[in-house]
Amino acid sequence: MLLRGLTPSATEAVQDLPETLASLGDVLYRLGRNDEAVECGESALIVIEDLLEQNPRHVPSRLVKTNVLIQIGHVHLRSARIEEAHAVLLEGLALNDALREEVPELVRVLDQRVTLMFNLNGVLHTLERFDEAADLA
Question: Are 51 and 14 in contact (CB under 8 A)?
Answer without folding.
Answer: yes
